[in-house]
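Preliminary data (for renewal application), 6-O-phosphono-alpha-D-glucopyranose complex.
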Amino acid sequence: MDIQTVETGPINGQKPGTSGLRKKTKVFMGPHFLENYVQSIFDGIGGVSGKTLIVGGDGRYFNERAIQVILRMMAANGASRAIVGQNGLLSTPAASNLIRKRGTDGGLILSASHNPGGPDEDFGLKYNGPNGGPASEGVTDKIFARTTDITSYKIVEGEDVDIASTGDKTLGDMVVEVIDPVADYAALMENLFDFDAIKGLLSSGFTISFDAMHAVTGPYAKAILEHRLGAAEGSVVNATPSPDFGGGHPDPNPIWAKELMDRMHGPDAPDFGAASDGDGDRNMIVGKGCYVTPSDSLAVLAANATLAPAYRDGLKGIARSMPTSAAVDRVAEKLGIDCYETPTGWKFFGNLLDAGRATICGEESAGTGSDHVREKDGLWAVLLWLNILAQKRQPVAQLIADHWTQFGRNYYSRHDYEAVESDLANRLMDDMRTKMSDLPGTEVAGLKVEAADEFSYNDPVDGSVSKNQGLRFYFEGGGRVVFRLSGTGTEGATIRVYIERLELDPSAMQQDAQEALAPIIKAAETLSRIRAETGRSGPDVVT
Ligand code: G6P
Ligand code: ZN
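Predicted structure:
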């Protein structure tokens, strides 16, 4: 084995964000960029000598080339085994499952999630630990520290490993085990849910449409929904993963999954629609003519989870990220279980899941999941919905309306201002931070401010503290607005504004969300001056 030690020096900008390191693909492809980061991961986790790692990605441009580099660096650093998805494919939840099932030392997931792919778009890489979840801040801090003082990396020279066919291969002294990316994941899903009940639903004339958005869930959804559960051929659309996701944004929201939204609001709408993102961890749920917000979806899943075999004995607790609506809190209250509020980022759920304090978790950013893996899981959410509908035999819109009547409706919307100049975005946040302590008791655009603070999280399991996690303003009457800067963008800053209001009057629960939230949206602008200072007339994305 020809191990080379290549001299290098620190490269700026290798600080992992909300979910690993994301950059323009060309940046990742630049000299030593990928190699420096991979070596920093290895060093940051105490080396990979004798270790086994899962390796796979969402199939975007540069996925396979990057995997070949990673494998050669693993071999050079003394790893004993790499378990790789065939053709380099693994959805994020499938990778998380494999880490846990095979008891490995973690895994490397190549994805920029819902960001577009291609030579001029985005690429990403993250390390997940032995519990299957994204590395904790403690670990990513070590990885980042290494990127700032790295002097060399190790790599083996040689031929590419054949990852197009399954089976054991060798690379120097390391075994490269190429596996079917779908099989273990499909078996896990079959364990959690009542597949017979879902089959019964799908054979009763209930129709579905799942949009894989040209991304990694295509093969998973085909195998599970069509082949195992009997959904009609063609129920899964855009099912072949492509390096640039068909030129689109593989982001399951009403804007980027417009094709599905149009179908669900058209004359031949199926009974149930869903979509997933680039790496398969996000989901969007749509009923016939009825979009379900991620926050409402989380609340409905939590309220009805016991209808699925895996959750029959009840939930230990629920967790949501702070900007997610409080709809699920009301469910937790009713069930008499704890509800945790964490910062944005799935990694913050890991400790709660490991400690058995939470069973189901979710985020407003279209992520829902449970303790079956340590990532959010798009197809899991779809299957839990189908399992619930198989028992309830109700249209989605009716299920949602009943839920609101029982628990109240948390009107909710997120407004994103994308690619704002970073200095300006930081200044706008600083301005609000400075004035927030004087606001309680005063009126903003006619709304009385009850409280205002900057969210800081004390992890109840390991005692760690995460500061500066979003600016929160609470108004009289149950309204709330939260401001934070996205940690997943690759260009400039994205300002996210999360707006919410609780409605308990059953006769006022069918309004348009933007109208129902209009007074708070106005107060948000008065507080932040985003539109005035950026010269924009409104947000780029509204969810
Ligand atoms: C990724 C993470 C999520 C997070 C989302 C939004 O998908 O896995 O946990 O909610 O990004 O993050 P952002 O920092 O862009 O709001
Ligand atoms: Zn994702």
